[in-house]
Amino acid sequence: MKNTIHITVEENEAGDRVDLFLSKKYQDYSRSYFNELIKNGEALLNDKIVKSSTKVKINDKVTITFVETKKPDDRLIPEDIPLNIIYEDEDVLVINKQPGLVVHPAAGNTQGTLVNALINYFPKIQEAVIEKGNAMSESRPGLVHRLDKDTSGVIIIAKNPRSMHSLSQHIQHRNVKKYYFALCYNWPKNPTGHLVHYLGRNPKDRKMVAEVSQQKGKEAISDYEVAEYFKTAKGENVSLIKFDIKTGRTHQIRVQAQRINCPVLGDQVYGNKESMKLSESLHIERQMLHAYQLCIPLIGESEKKCFTAELPKDFLAAEENLIKVISHIR
Fold first, then answer.
1. 148, 150, 267, 314: the active-site residue
2. Residues 63 and 93 in one domain
3. Are residues 78 and 6 in the same domain?
4. Residues of the chain with pLDDT under 50
5. Could you count the other beta carbons within 10 Å of the beta carbon of residue 56?
6. C-alpha span between 175 and 171 (Å, rounded)
7. Which of 172, 195, 218 is the last residue of a domain?
């Protein structure tokens, strides 16, 4: 299967190699994948075949033909995985996702995901795709946003093409509110704050996100408020922080929490030595990040409808081992 897309290079994207530019633009594909496309003439710069090392300039035109090979063994398999359903109607399904559940299949991993559970629960959801005939799109039916594997909480699913389009448009135009709770090591310097960072793939490790220059990154905006202040028996500071995210960048909260010196407990990627030591002593087994509430208009409605998933058991269990100092908003 092939899918051709035309892209114009914007000012903040100029100066990167073609392969790097494309891997930033489409983060679900590896840089080596784009190297192969460029080598085979499937990615053109201003309608010309170029090398992967060629740097893009402002207003350059990039034409890329995604080559998808969907084999018979890549078919989505329905699986009877439990779903904690918060809300359902003919158009949408709202789930309280359990930690440890991958949202969608990826290369070499077509089983055990939320998508496998969804097609088992509602087979017609396979019609809810952004683009029919595109293998990547068809491997993620119903999904209009994502949560990390170890992040729990609210995720909304489209059950048909019209709700897929409607929800995607609201999310694309930021007509949605998303609130998260994170149990973090340390106390922020201020009880409330407005965070603006520019995030991009870490050049030393493509699986990680890092703060980069404005020219090389995408703007990530969050407001935060400390809900509760805790101390451990040894006097270490812990805070429960509510994040109101204005953008939806990959690993946004985890990176921004790290940037204010309050890494999310249990986060093995962005945590520090102290946070990981405390996480171990509190028997925390995953990053303590929970999608608490999502508010979005449903089809035919102008007002946002809010869906809430209360804090899960592992959050409450960790808090039982802490001494509450001050409670603000909870």
1. 148
2. no
3. no
4. 1, 69-73
5. 23
6. 6
7. 172
